[in-house]
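Hi there,

I know you've been waiting on this one. I reran it after we fixed the sequence typo, so this is the corrected version. Both the input and the resulting structure follow.
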Amino acid sequence: MSDSKVSVLVTGGAGYIGSHAVLTLKDSGWRVAIVDNLSTKVRELVPEGVPFYWGSIADTSLRKRVFAEQETKAVMHFAGSMVVPESVADALAYFENNTVGTHSLLSAVVDSPVTQVLFSSTAAIYGIPKKAAGGQG
């Protein structure tokens, strides 16, 4: 590719934070691609001209294809699930995506030309607040 800036893969790039990262990268001249399963995202947030791959970050064949096709050198990982009540109701699905999926992604990174990873942790707050929302506590 003629562009001297490295290719950045944004996982969860159709979500709120991921889509803003994609726009910023694109506006700054970086080559960018997205992997997203659209579980809670909006396909319309993907800018025109940005390669989009629908699927799971845990999908080994998808990751290999994206890394090869996009000549990926960096990953920005925003594909974590973060709805707290949902995580309690379906803890195994959250474990599968957030822990197993991220481990799978990072394992693939180790065996690839990717040299940079930005990991976005959950936006959820941990712990017990001194005063609960709504004035109780």
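Quick highlight: The mean pLDDT is 85.

Best,
R. S.
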